[in-house]
Amino acid sequence: MKRLVDKTTIRYMEFGVLNALFCTAIMYLLYNLTSLESWVCALVNHGLGGVISYVFNRNYVFRARKRSLRTPVLFALNLAVCYVIAYSIALPGIEVWMRRWPETAQDNVAMGLGVLIFVVLNYFGQRYFVFRGFDRKD
Fold first, then answer.
1. At what angle do helices 7-33 and 103-125 cross, to 10 degrees?
2. Cα 78 versus chain centre, distance
3. String of DSSP letters for the chain
4. Going by C-beta distance under 8 Å and a sequence separation of 6 or more, which residues neighbour residue 123?
5. CA pair distance 20, 112, nearest whole angstrom
6. What pTM did the predictor assign?
7. Which of 16, 44, 67, 81 is the most buried (most CB within 10 A)?
8. Rounded CA gap, 87 and 113, in Å?
């Protein structure tokens, strides 16, 4: 368990919660105040959150010191994979569970569940895929 929860986990949670709340608020505002589809709003959420978190996670959470063109590519790939997995689970699951509810209620709950799944997957993807092997200075 200690290998899964360490200083990077705590630092990720400190910033990740704020970033997720900020970007998720934007997602919900876009969905509930415009005619955009839920997947578009979720994509905006994770795209904006991704740009913010790349800089912060690289420098603060994982303290990656090596410079590499490969890192932003891996980061973007990780975001895309986490997005697809999270919403492939959340959307169908909520549609089954809440089938008698209005579509907007289903979408709102599915977007929230997708964010939760995404955040967890994203942490492990960044830790073990994107920033793996970087020199860390604690």
1. 150
2. 10
3. -TTTSSHHHHHHHHHHHHHHHHHHHHHHHHHHHS---HHHHHHHHHHHHHHHHHHHIIIIIS---S--SHHHHHHHHHHHHHHHHHHHHHHHHHHHHTTTS-HHHHHHHHHHHHHHHHHHHHHHHIIIIISTT-----
4. 9, 12, 16
5. 10
6. 0.86
7. 16
8. 8
Residue with tokens 């997720």: 20
